[in-house]
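hiii, so i know i said id send this last week but things got crazy w the move. better late than never?? heres the sequnce for the chain we talked about at the cafe, plus the structure i predicted for it. fair warning i was half asleep when i ran it
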Amino acid sequence: MIESEKSHRDLAVLVVPRDGRVVSTGGCSEPYRLLDADGEIVEPVSLFLPELLAAGRSAATLRSYGMDLLRWWRFLQAVEVDWDRATRVEARDFSCWIQLTVKHRRPRTGVDGAGWVNSVAAQPNPITVKPTLGTGYAVATVAHSETVLRGFYDFHRDAGTGPILNPFPLDRARRSRRAHSHRNPMDGWAHERVGRYRPKMPRRIPRAIPDQRFNELFAALRSNRDRALVAFWISTGVRASELLGVRQCDIDPGQQLITVVRKGTRASQQVPASADAFVWLRLYQEEMHGQIPPGRIQPLWWTLRRPRRPFRTANDRRLSAARLLAVAEATEPGAVIDGSNGALRKAVVPNAIGRIVWAEDIATGKRRNLSYEEDEAFWAFATIEVLRLTGIRCEELLELSHHSITEYRLPGTGELVPLLQIAPSKTDTERMLLVSPELADVLSAIVQRLRGPDGSIPVVVSYDIREKIWHPPMPVLFQRGIGNERHAFTPAPSASC
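okay and structure toks below
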């Protein structure tokens, strides 16, 4: 029974805290944990996640479930209700709140993430018809959250550790009978068991790019490697991460098949590819003959620049360098670094600067500056992502400062909209770009990296090679430490990233 005093909770004044987090343990038996505001393990979630692992779910699935439960725990903290005392009133209010609120993100300067989403739908990309990401949670995220929470309470109800009635029940019109009990064999399978608070999923229309645009894109590619990658990606339909993980032994030109490791199940699957893709691949292999290590288990895709390295995305390179640096910092000098397959050990450098971590290749004895490699990987990622998400020029990128991140409050709804101010480059007019969620994450990572102990971003002077002038000291976003000084990026280093 829904109590009358609880049935009119004012969601407009509800402030949901950002306490708690989902942390990675690095273990196989418990990949992720949910921690509350005090840093303590949330026991009900710790009992539920191993059930998913036993059912064959991947670690990425457990993290996704943990994020949904984290949002639910934050909402319960805001309404001051224990998880085992939650009723359908809390489930209803949570379902309304998650569809109306602005998506929680990492805090960034000038934007607190509070407010409500704009009801006006954003226009899709006119070429790829890809929908523009909004400020709120997607319908798929809301539906996934409802499914996760219903399964969570079903598990604790069966175990006798949760409420008798599930706060997230099935639709009342469909839960009283067996699913598909009156199905016509001539019809398709309909969704018979749908949650009461589950939103209706829109039917997706397959996206496509016009042939003329694709021909222009393919003609702009400068290497046979890139042409082979695009040809395989288009003809197979696999994910980019799956395609980049292909090895030499995974190619079967005779049957025109390639073997990829699927993202979710981690199972190997053969997929057909076009004949043109294998032609471009053969041209690429002929160019790289003798320049890459031989072997069937070697990666298929390599960088075009020397020294040759396995080809990865900028984000993968950044994460890999950060993980290697973190492990090396915790390793004793002279010991083998975990995660390097026994190839690296931490170098013993008595006179080295304390903030620089050196590693030594066990086979060749060559030393590597892991701190420099991590710094290069991060700024390469930041440069590529900002250019990709904004479409600005390189000279405009180098002039971005902390003052360029601003906000605008909509007069009608009071919603805070993050904006990025672009200084004039070819024209004499400034531009204001709407900050997308992806761009906001990148800018937040840059700001957090540059902040000093007092929370401010260092001010540096920069030199304009075209105007031949020095700019006054400003908190530019693209700066780095060289020795004991900080310098702004110049066009040459930014291009090499």
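btw Confidence is low (pLDDT under 50) at residues 1-6, 107-114. thought thatd interest u
miss u guys!!
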